[in-house]
Amino acid sequence: MTTLFHAPLTCSLAARFAAAEGDVPLDISYLNLRTKELEAGGSLFDVNPLGQVAALQLGDGSLLTETSTVLLWIQSQSGNADFRVDPDDPDYFQLLRWIAFCATELHKGLFRVLFYQEATDKVKDRVRRLAPLRFKTLEQHLADRNYLLGERFTAADAYLTWFFVLSGKAQLDHGIYPNLESYRRRALSRPAIRDLIDQDRKKDREMGQGILPA
């Protein structure tokens, strides 16, 4: 069985979104990202020396890390042709493009600093001023499509949807971008997405991780 090491509401939730939408079964091993403790015992450092998620242990015991890689593996295993984008699909490199955009421009470019406890308010404010250009890029792209690759929800959307789970906590304002706001509401209202967010919020509280307020 393939095991996802998952800290509720963190970026590994994007992998759960992708697995749910792509009908890819995963065993979930919960952990507290603040303490690095696995619910089943042991430490995240025993799995990934960097102490980070997403981390995916495959059936043969090998490990995949980095959210982008994990998302691409999950989508490659999907039997749902509406979700999976194969390497020979004309949209495949667009899939890579938008996964990379989410990873570098949003996840690392914004969240990595805004959620860094040692970052000063001045530094965080400067980083927030980088957000509008990124949001405008998405706003323009979504002007004539429901999802990043058109009318189908893909692994790239799983990553972007997770961004919106925590964008409010990061105090990022995207309310003035109508296409982006429509996308946000559309993605977050998908039944599988909504259910997983509810599950993770509950688990976050139970574990005392405190990613989002109760």
UniProtKB/TrEMBL annotation:
Top-level taxon: Bacteria
Record domain GST C-terminal: where: 88-207
InterPro entries xref list: Glutathione-S-Trfase_C-like (IPR010987), Glutathione-S-Trfase_C_sf (IPR036282), Glutathione_S-Trfase_N (IPR004045), GST_C (IPR004046), Thioredoxin-like_sf (IPR036249)
Pfam families listed in its UniProt record: GST_C
Domain annotation GST N-terminal: ranges: 1-82
PROSITE patterns: GST_CTER (PS50405), GST_NTER (PS50404)
Name of the featured protein: Glutathione S-transferase
Source organism (scientific name): Denitrobaculum tricleocarpae
